[in-house]
Amino acid sequence: MEKLLKRLIEKNKHMARHGKVASYIPVLGKASPNDIGICIMDMDGNIYGSGNYRNKFTLQSISKVMALILALLDRGEEEVFSKVGMKPTTEAFNSLYRMDLPDKWIPSNPMLNSGAIITTSLIKGKGREKSDRILELIRDITSNFNIDYEEETYRSEKKTADRNRAIAYLLRDMNLLDGNVEEVLDAYFRQCSIEVDCVDLARIGLFFANKCKSYNIERGEHMATLAVTIMSLCGMYGFSGEYAVKVGVPSKSGVSGGILGVVPNRFGIGVYGPALDRYGNSIVGCKIMEELSKELNLNIFE
Ligand code: DON
C-alpha cells in the first residue's frame, strides 16, 4: 500500500504547478505547493502514509462536516434543514449570490460558508464554546488530544474576513442567524483554524466509514449517513459532480489543501496538497484521489 501511495504522489505532484495556494487568508499563503501527503486507515486500524503526511495544516472547510453533525445533534434535522438546504450547487464556497433576492432564500447547503455559518450558530454554547465542542469531538474521534487551534491562522482569517462578515450580517437580517454575529463568526474562524495532519484526517474519515460506531453519538449511523451523503453531493463545491463521477468517494475539501475521504465500511483517507484548483479544492489531492479510487476500487457508485 505504501508503495502505491508513494507512486501516486510522485506521478501527480507536477500538477501543483497548475494550482494556486490560497492567500486570501494571508497565513495560508506561506504553505509550500510541493508538499504532498496522503494517509489511509483501514477498518482494522492499520495506517498507511506517504509523502508529507505528517505536515500540519488547518481544517478550514473540512470543519463544516463536524459543525453539521453537532448542529443536527443539538437542534434536530427539522430545525437545521429549515435554515440550510441540502442542494448541490455550482456557487463558489464564499458566494453571496442570491442572498439579496426577494424570494424566500436559504443557503443551498451546509458546505458553503453561508450554510456553515448557520450550522455553527445552531451549535449549543456561547461563542467559543461552540468551536470548543467541535475541537473536543475531533480530539475524541482521533484520540489525539494534542489537536488544537492554530492561533496565527485564526487571527489572520479574523482580520481579513470581510466576505464572511458580510454573509453573516445578511443572514441575521434575513432571520436565519440567531445570537451575536461576531461571536458566531469568531467560533467559525476558530473551527476553521483547528490544526491536523493526514493521519488525523484519515481517522476522522474512518469514524464516518465506520458509521460513528463505538462513539457515544445519538443515532450515530444516521448522522454518518447524512454527513456522507452531503459530502458526496456538495463536499467539493462546483466540482462535486465531476468528482463523484471520476472518484466516487464522499469527500470534503478545505482551502488549506486538505481532503477528507470516506469509503463506507472500508477506509478513512486524508490527503494534503495546498495548491488549489479554481473551486478551492487541492488540485494534486483530487488527482491522487481519482487514481487511488481506480487502483483500489473505491468508487461507491460502482
Ligand atoms: O471561510 C473561509 O473562507 C475559510 N475559513 C474556509 C473556506 C474553505 O476552506 C473553502 N474550501 N475549500
Brief descriptors of the model:
globular, 2 domains, three-stranded antiparallel beta sheet, 12% strand, five-stranded antiparallel beta sheet, alpha+beta, 302 residues, Beta-lactamase, 11 helices, binds 6-diazenyl-5-OXO-L-norleucine
Task: Characterise the protein shown here.
This protein is an alpha+beta fold and 302 residues long. It has two domains: 2-58 and 196-296, DD-peptidase/beta-lactamase superfamily (Beta-lactamase), CATH 3.40.710.10; 61-194, DD-peptidase/beta-lactamase superfamily (Beta-lactamase, 3-Layer(aba) Sandwich), CATH 3.40.710. 46% of the residues lie in helices and 12% in strands. It is built from eleven helices and ten strands. A five-stranded antiparallel β-sheet has the order 3-2-9-8-7. Helix 2 packs across helix 3 (113-122). The protein is globular. Bound molecules: 6-diazenyl-5-OXO-L-norleucine. 6-diazenyl-5-OXO-L-norleucine binds next to loops.
Mean pLDDT: 96
Bound molecules: 6-diazenyl-5-OXO-L-norleucine
Radius of gyration: 18 Å
CATH top level of the largest domain is Alpha Beta
- Number of helical regions: 11
Query: pLDDT below 50 for ≥5 consecutive residues: which ranges?
Result: none
Q: Strand tally, please? A: 10
Beta-strand content estimate: 5-15%
Proportion in helices: 40-55%
Spatial strand sequence of the major β-sheet: 3-2-9-8-7
Based on the coordinates given, report the CATH architecture of the largest domain: 3-Layer(aba) Sandwich
The CATH topology annotation of the largest domain reads as Beta-lactamase
What are the secondary-structure elements, in order, as H or E? HEEEEHHHEHHHEHHHEEEEH
Termini separation:
22 Å
Q: CATH-wise, what's the superfamily of the largest domain? A: DD-peptidase/beta-lactamase superfamily
Classify the oligomer: single chain
The tally of structural domains comes to 2
Q: How many strands, what sense, and barrel or not for the largest sheet?
A: 5 strands, antiparallel
Sum up the overall morphology in one term: globular
Category from helices, strands and their pairing: alpha+beta
